[in-house]
Amino acid sequence: MAGSFLPPSTVHLLLSKPMPPVRNENEKYRCNVCGNEVLVTKAGGGTLVCCGEDIDLLTDGKTAANEE
User: Fold this and answer.
1) Which of these, 44, 15, 19, 43, lies nearest to 31 by C-alpha position?
2) 13 lies in a domain?
């Protein structure tokens, strides 16, 4: 469509790598915006969101995003 555009939040969602679903208990996640940490006690298969963004899985003291 001529003249149509996507809002910035939609563009961010399209360009960002999709977050894998939470599958395992005892996984630990951290929000890169505010620093909240989440320990999974019951895995339901959804994704975790904080501050409007997917939060990163921590592995060996590092976020999954930092390991790439």
Assistant:
1) 19
2) no
Model confidence pLDDT, tens digit, residues 40-68: 999 888 889 999 998 989 986 555 555 44
Token digits of residue 19: 């977050």
Q: Which residues of 10-33 are buried (b: 16+ CB within 10 A; e: fewer)?
A: eeeeeeeeebeebeeeebebbbee
Note the pTM of the prediction, 2 decimals. Answer: 0.60
**24 within some domain:** yes
The boundaries of the domain holding residue 24 are: 19-67
* Helix (H) or strand (E) run with residue 5 in it: none
Rounded distance between C-alpha atoms, residue 37 and residue 57, angstroms: 10
- Dump pLDDT digits (tens) for 18-37: 667 888 899 999 999 999 99
Query: Is 39 within a domain?
Result: yes
